[in-house]
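Hi everyone,

Forwarding the result from last night's run.
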Amino acid sequence: MTARALRVGFDGRTLTSPAAGVRRYVRELTNALLQLGEPLQLVALGGSGPVPPPIQRQPEPWHPPTNLGWTLVGLRRAALGAALDVYHGPAYTAPAWGVHPLVLTIHDVSYARKPEWYPYRRDLARRWFYRTSAAAADRIITDSRFSQREITAAYGIEDSRIRVIPLGVSPRFTPANGGDSVQPAPGKFYVLHVGDLHPRRNLGVALDAVLRLRGEDRAFADLILVLAGVDRGVVTALAQRAAASGHPQALVARGPVEEAELLRLYQGAAALVYPSQYEGFGLPILEAMACGIPVLASRTPAAEEVGGDAALLLPPDDVSAWTSALRAVLADAHCSADLRQRGATRAALFTWSRTARATYEVYRECAGML
């Protein structure tokens, strides 16, 4: 007798979310879930554009014509009309009442733990809504043990309701074949940062390290810092900083990039620099390792979980340490090769298949199928 398919719904709008990390998580997770071969039916609630088969689409019912109206009214109505076994909110928000069992993914709680990085008035409402969604969830999924502790500290949610499920690396992220790479300018080389450009990403430290190397050593006179991600209000100040140093060409902000270009940027980089002061996980660390480039990251709890001993972990605000480490990686072939090898081994431990399997078990737990 064939087992009845577990019917799981999620917010279909997240497939086209303006947040690149949310889009990546939803697309990779849903694809990996479908590849498990388990009796599972995924339903995208609302959203526009095609959905990958065999995911079903539940049309949006009437709701106030705002994002908040969709989440508070339309999403709840769509979930109730879809006859779900489980609803999964893949990014921070969920219907605040009436939809159960409810699984919610919270990638990090920087907005609650470090509100000084989010000074805008609208974030007060967002922080309230995130807290309310977390309180309503039957189970919370988060990416790291660090985020689990932070969620408990921010919201008072007991550990028994939180499941730590690390993210994975897509098989698309591989080292370059034949040196095919994107270069910001002919004959120049670069270090790369990937991710939305928030103040907490602490990119002034990476830029200062690049500027010091350019000024101190002719071998690095053409070194560039390339930023791939949506500017959240920091690029203008960084560009002014580079110009004031006499090296305006040391910074290239590419903005958001498509998947194919992102892969080539990884493959062509001399190193990934990730000086963030706060992360819930840090997926670019793993993607860079999978692409065969050395990783320099801040010594933060999440980066330690993700990078292990395969990344150079540095004090977030020590420009001298970043400069010295970057010099070593760029000038010492043995150091670079060692980091590449260790990084490839580390990245192979994190797969979307493992993420999907653990997530599926959370669905079964919430649906009372264990």
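The mean pLDDT is 92.

Cheers,
N.
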